[in-house]
Specification:
Elements lengths: L1 H34 L8 H13 L3 H16 L5 H20 L9 H21 L6 H12 L5 H19 L2 H23 L4 E8 L2 H11 L5 E6 L6 E10 L3 H11 L4 E7 L14
Antiparallel strand pairs: 1-3, 1-4, 2-3
Protein backbone atom coordinates (compact mmCIF):
# COMPACT_ATOMS: atom_id res chain seq x y z
CA UNK A 1 0.00 0.00 0.00
CA UNK A 2 2.84 2.36 0.90
CA UNK A 3 4.65 1.69 -2.40
CA UNK A 4 1.38 2.28 -4.30
CA UNK A 5 0.85 5.64 -2.60
CA UNK A 6 4.46 6.59 -3.23
CA UNK A 7 4.18 5.68 -6.93
CA UNK A 8 0.92 7.63 -7.19
CA UNK A 9 2.55 10.66 -5.51
CA UNK A 10 5.51 10.52 -7.88
CA UNK A 11 3.18 10.33 -10.88
CA UNK A 12 1.20 13.34 -9.68
CA UNK A 13 4.38 15.34 -9.12
CA UNK A 14 5.59 14.42 -12.60
CA UNK A 15 2.28 15.59 -14.10
CA UNK A 16 2.46 18.82 -12.08
CA UNK A 17 5.96 19.64 -13.31
CA UNK A 18 5.02 18.70 -16.89
CA UNK A 19 2.12 21.17 -16.69
CA UNK A 20 4.44 23.85 -15.33
CA UNK A 21 6.99 23.37 -18.14
CA UNK A 22 4.32 23.27 -20.87
CA UNK A 23 2.64 26.34 -19.37
CA UNK A 24 5.95 28.22 -19.34
CA UNK A 25 6.55 27.38 -23.00
CA UNK A 26 3.08 28.50 -24.13
CA UNK A 27 2.91 31.57 -21.88
CA UNK A 28 6.48 32.60 -22.67
CA UNK A 29 5.85 32.34 -26.41
CA UNK A 30 2.92 34.76 -26.10
CA UNK A 31 5.31 37.68 -25.55
CA UNK A 32 7.56 37.55 -28.65
CA UNK A 33 4.78 36.24 -30.88
CA UNK A 34 2.03 38.71 -29.92
CA UNK A 35 2.47 41.02 -26.93
CA UNK A 36 5.91 42.66 -27.07
CA UNK A 37 5.82 43.50 -30.83
CA UNK A 38 2.47 45.26 -30.29
CA UNK A 39 3.58 47.04 -27.08
CA UNK A 40 0.99 45.30 -24.88
CA UNK A 41 1.89 45.36 -21.15
CA UNK A 42 -0.45 42.76 -19.59
CA UNK A 43 -0.15 43.79 -15.95
CA UNK A 44 2.10 42.44 -13.20
CA UNK A 45 5.87 42.56 -13.12
CA UNK A 46 6.14 41.14 -16.63
CA UNK A 47 4.04 44.09 -17.76
CA UNK A 48 6.55 46.42 -16.12
CA UNK A 49 9.33 44.54 -17.93
CA UNK A 50 7.46 45.05 -21.22
CA UNK A 51 7.32 48.82 -20.57
CA UNK A 52 11.06 48.88 -19.78
CA UNK A 53 11.68 46.97 -23.02
CA UNK A 54 9.73 49.63 -24.91
CA UNK A 55 11.67 52.47 -23.24
CA UNK A 56 15.23 51.13 -23.17
CA UNK A 57 15.18 47.80 -25.00
CA UNK A 58 15.83 45.72 -21.88
CA UNK A 59 15.05 42.01 -22.47
CA UNK A 60 11.61 41.24 -21.06
CA UNK A 61 12.51 37.81 -19.66
CA UNK A 62 15.66 38.82 -17.79
CA UNK A 63 14.09 42.02 -16.49
CA UNK A 64 11.04 40.12 -15.24
CA UNK A 65 13.29 37.60 -13.50
CA UNK A 66 15.30 40.33 -11.77
CA UNK A 67 12.09 42.01 -10.56
CA UNK A 68 10.59 38.76 -9.30
CA UNK A 69 13.51 37.18 -7.44
CA UNK A 70 13.54 39.60 -4.46
CA UNK A 71 9.82 38.97 -3.94
CA UNK A 72 10.42 35.21 -3.86
CA UNK A 73 13.07 35.70 -1.20
CA UNK A 74 10.59 37.71 0.85
CA UNK A 75 7.84 35.12 0.47
CA UNK A 76 9.98 31.97 0.90
CA UNK A 77 9.06 31.28 4.54
CA UNK A 78 5.56 32.73 4.48
CA UNK A 79 4.11 30.70 1.60
CA UNK A 80 5.52 27.20 2.11
CA UNK A 81 8.54 25.63 0.48
CA UNK A 82 6.82 23.41 -2.11
CA UNK A 83 4.70 26.24 -3.53
CA UNK A 84 7.59 28.74 -3.57
CA UNK A 85 10.04 26.19 -5.04
CA UNK A 86 7.67 25.30 -7.88
CA UNK A 87 6.90 28.98 -8.43
CA UNK A 88 10.60 29.83 -8.54
CA UNK A 89 11.17 27.14 -11.18
CA UNK A 90 8.15 28.41 -13.13
CA UNK A 91 9.37 32.00 -12.99
CA UNK A 92 12.88 31.10 -14.15
CA UNK A 93 11.58 28.97 -17.03
CA UNK A 94 8.87 31.46 -17.99
CA UNK A 95 11.35 34.35 -18.06
CA UNK A 96 13.91 32.28 -19.98
CA UNK A 97 11.42 31.19 -22.64
CA UNK A 98 10.34 34.79 -23.26
CA UNK A 99 13.88 35.71 -24.31
CA UNK A 100 14.80 32.35 -25.89
CA UNK A 101 11.97 32.45 -28.41
CA UNK A 102 13.75 34.49 -31.09
CA UNK A 103 10.89 34.28 -33.57
CA UNK A 104 9.19 36.90 -35.76
CA UNK A 105 5.78 38.10 -34.52
CA UNK A 106 2.77 36.38 -36.01
CA UNK A 107 0.86 39.65 -36.48
CA UNK A 108 1.36 43.39 -36.34
CA UNK A 109 -2.37 43.98 -35.88
CA UNK A 110 -2.69 45.23 -32.31
CA UNK A 111 -6.16 43.76 -31.74
CA UNK A 112 -5.18 40.31 -33.00
CA UNK A 113 -1.96 40.50 -30.99
CA UNK A 114 -3.91 41.44 -27.86
CA UNK A 115 -6.53 38.70 -28.14
CA UNK A 116 -4.30 35.82 -29.22
CA UNK A 117 -1.49 36.90 -26.91
CA UNK A 118 -3.94 36.98 -23.99
CA UNK A 119 -5.32 33.54 -24.89
CA UNK A 120 -1.83 32.01 -25.10
CA UNK A 121 -0.77 33.75 -21.89
CA UNK A 122 -3.92 32.65 -20.06
CA UNK A 123 -3.50 29.06 -21.25
CA UNK A 124 0.11 29.03 -20.09
CA UNK A 125 -0.62 30.62 -16.69
CA UNK A 126 -3.56 28.27 -16.16
CA UNK A 127 -1.37 25.21 -16.76
CA UNK A 128 1.27 26.59 -14.40
CA UNK A 129 -1.36 27.13 -11.70
CA UNK A 130 -2.72 23.61 -12.25
CA UNK A 131 0.81 22.44 -11.54
CA UNK A 132 0.69 24.19 -8.16
CA UNK A 133 2.84 27.21 -8.97
CA UNK A 134 2.73 30.82 -10.08
CA UNK A 135 5.04 32.97 -12.20
CA UNK A 136 4.81 36.18 -10.23
CA UNK A 137 6.41 37.14 -6.93
CA UNK A 138 3.64 39.73 -6.76
CA UNK A 139 1.18 36.88 -6.07
CA UNK A 140 3.11 35.93 -2.95
CA UNK A 141 3.36 39.53 -1.79
CA UNK A 142 -0.41 39.84 -2.28
CA UNK A 143 -0.99 36.76 -0.12
CA UNK A 144 1.34 38.09 2.55
CA UNK A 145 -0.39 41.48 2.57
CA UNK A 146 -3.76 39.74 2.84
CA UNK A 147 -2.47 37.64 5.73
CA UNK A 148 -1.27 40.75 7.55
CA UNK A 149 -4.24 42.94 6.57
CA UNK A 150 -7.26 40.65 5.90
CA UNK A 151 -9.33 43.61 4.69
CA UNK A 152 -7.08 43.75 1.58
CA UNK A 153 -7.96 40.78 -0.61
CA UNK A 154 -5.41 39.07 -2.86
CA UNK A 155 -7.49 39.94 -5.91
CA UNK A 156 -7.74 43.60 -4.92
CA UNK A 157 -3.98 43.86 -4.41
CA UNK A 158 -3.17 42.27 -7.76
CA UNK A 159 -5.81 44.42 -9.45
CA UNK A 160 -4.14 47.52 -7.98
CA UNK A 161 -0.77 46.39 -9.40
CA UNK A 162 -2.33 45.78 -12.83
CA UNK A 163 -3.96 49.23 -12.76
CA UNK A 164 -0.63 50.84 -11.87
CA UNK A 165 1.08 49.04 -14.76
CA UNK A 166 -1.65 50.13 -17.18
CA UNK A 167 -1.33 53.75 -16.03
CA UNK A 168 2.42 53.53 -16.61
CA UNK A 169 1.75 52.11 -20.07
CA UNK A 170 -0.60 54.99 -20.81
CA UNK A 171 2.06 57.56 -19.95
CA UNK A 172 5.10 55.81 -21.44
CA UNK A 173 3.61 54.09 -24.49
CA UNK A 174 0.19 55.48 -25.36
CA UNK A 175 -3.37 55.59 -24.10
CA UNK A 176 -4.25 53.23 -26.96
CA UNK A 177 -1.73 50.65 -25.73
CA UNK A 178 -3.14 50.94 -22.21
CA UNK A 179 -6.69 50.32 -23.44
CA UNK A 180 -5.57 47.21 -25.30
CA UNK A 181 -3.72 46.10 -22.16
CA UNK A 182 -7.06 46.19 -20.31
CA UNK A 183 -8.55 43.87 -22.93
CA UNK A 184 -5.52 41.62 -22.57
CA UNK A 185 -5.89 41.37 -18.78
CA UNK A 186 -9.60 40.53 -19.09
CA UNK A 187 -9.12 37.84 -21.76
CA UNK A 188 -6.14 36.36 -19.89
CA UNK A 189 -8.17 36.07 -16.69
CA UNK A 190 -11.00 34.31 -18.56
CA UNK A 191 -8.56 31.91 -20.21
CA UNK A 192 -6.96 31.10 -16.85
CA UNK A 193 -10.39 30.40 -15.34
CA UNK A 194 -11.24 28.15 -18.28
CA UNK A 195 -8.08 26.09 -17.81
CA UNK A 196 -8.48 25.86 -14.02
CA UNK A 197 -12.22 25.20 -13.88
CA UNK A 198 -12.75 23.35 -17.16
CA UNK A 199 -15.27 24.00 -19.92
CA UNK A 200 -18.36 22.79 -18.11
CA UNK A 201 -18.56 19.62 -20.20
CA UNK A 202 -20.79 17.91 -17.63
CA UNK A 203 -24.35 18.79 -16.60
CA UNK A 204 -25.86 18.66 -13.11
CA UNK A 205 -29.51 17.59 -13.36
CA UNK A 206 -32.03 18.26 -10.60
CA UNK A 207 -35.28 16.33 -10.94
CA UNK A 208 -38.32 16.76 -8.69
CA UNK A 209 -40.77 13.92 -9.28
CA UNK A 210 -43.31 11.68 -7.58
CA UNK A 211 -41.66 8.65 -9.22
CA UNK A 212 -38.15 9.10 -7.91
CA UNK A 213 -37.45 5.39 -7.53
CA UNK A 214 -38.40 4.60 -11.14
CA UNK A 215 -36.52 7.59 -12.59
CA UNK A 216 -33.35 7.11 -10.53
CA UNK A 217 -33.39 3.38 -11.25
CA UNK A 218 -33.47 3.93 -15.00
CA UNK A 219 -30.74 6.58 -14.80
CA UNK A 220 -28.47 4.09 -13.06
CA UNK A 221 -29.35 1.18 -15.36
CA UNK A 222 -29.60 2.86 -18.76
CA UNK A 223 -27.08 5.70 -18.40
CA UNK A 224 -24.78 4.00 -15.90
CA UNK A 225 -24.74 7.21 -13.86
CA UNK A 226 -25.17 7.67 -10.14
CA UNK A 227 -28.17 9.38 -8.60
CA UNK A 228 -28.65 10.98 -5.18
CA UNK A 229 -32.08 11.30 -3.54
CA UNK A 230 -32.76 14.27 -1.28
CA UNK A 231 -36.12 14.67 0.53
CA UNK A 232 -37.80 18.03 -0.06
CA UNK A 233 -41.05 19.77 0.88
CA UNK A 234 -43.03 21.92 -1.54
CA UNK A 235 -43.52 25.39 -0.04
CA UNK A 236 -46.82 26.00 -1.85
CA UNK A 237 -48.35 22.50 -1.94
CA UNK A 238 -46.92 21.23 1.32
CA UNK A 239 -46.29 17.87 -0.38
CA UNK A 240 -43.19 15.78 0.25
CA UNK A 241 -41.15 14.96 -2.83
CA UNK A 242 -37.75 13.50 -3.60
CA UNK A 243 -35.19 15.54 -5.51
CA UNK A 244 -32.91 13.47 -7.72
CA UNK A 245 -29.45 14.86 -8.41
CA UNK A 246 -27.47 13.26 -11.21
CA UNK A 247 -24.40 14.52 -13.08
CA UNK A 248 -24.20 13.43 -16.71
CA UNK A 249 -22.30 14.33 -19.87
CA UNK A 250 -23.79 16.63 -22.52
CA UNK A 251 -24.58 13.64 -24.72
CA UNK A 252 -26.55 12.01 -21.90
CA UNK A 253 -28.85 14.97 -21.24
CA UNK A 254 -31.37 14.03 -23.95
CA UNK A 255 -31.64 10.36 -22.85
CA UNK A 256 -32.08 11.55 -19.26
CA UNK A 257 -34.90 13.92 -20.24
CA UNK A 258 -36.52 11.10 -22.20
CA UNK A 259 -36.43 8.86 -19.12
CA UNK A 260 -38.02 11.54 -16.96
CA UNK A 261 -40.67 12.31 -19.57
CA UNK A 262 -41.61 8.64 -19.94
CA UNK A 263 -41.86 8.07 -16.19
CA UNK A 264 -43.49 11.31 -15.05
CA UNK A 265 -44.45 14.09 -17.48
CA UNK A 266 -45.31 16.36 -14.55
CA UNK A 267 -41.76 16.29 -13.20
CA UNK A 268 -39.88 19.53 -12.65
CA UNK A 269 -36.34 19.48 -14.05
CA UNK A 270 -33.57 22.05 -14.15
CA UNK A 271 -30.10 21.48 -15.58
CA UNK A 272 -26.95 23.51 -14.98
CA UNK A 273 -23.35 23.44 -16.23
CA UNK A 274 -20.66 22.13 -13.91
CA UNK A 275 -17.35 23.97 -14.07
CA UNK A 276 -15.47 20.91 -12.89
CA UNK A 277 -16.65 17.37 -12.21
CA UNK A 278 -14.44 15.08 -10.15
CA UNK A 279 -15.03 11.51 -9.04
CA UNK A 280 -16.15 8.17 -10.43
CA UNK A 281 -17.10 8.33 -14.09
CA UNK A 282 -15.43 11.70 -14.57
CA UNK A 283 -12.00 13.21 -13.88
CA UNK A 284 -9.96 11.72 -11.03
CA UNK A 285 -10.15 13.44 -7.65
CA UNK A 286 -6.46 12.76 -7.08
CA UNK A 287 -3.93 15.48 -6.37
CA UNK A 288 -1.26 16.49 -3.96
Amino acid sequence: MTSFLKAKGNRERLIAYAQIVLGCIIGGAAYPLFLVPNNIAPGGLTGIATILNYLWGWPVGVTSMVLNLPLFLIGWKAMGRVFVFRSLIATLLFSAFIDLFQVPPLTDDILLGTVYGALALGLGLGLIMRGGATTGGSDMVARMVHKRFPIVTVGAFLFAIDCAVILCAAFTMSARAALYALICIFVTAKAVDLVLAGMGSAKACFIITKKSDAVSGRIMRELDRGATLIPALGAFSGESRMVIISVVTRAEVLPLKRIVREEDEKSFVFITDTHETLGEGFESLGGE
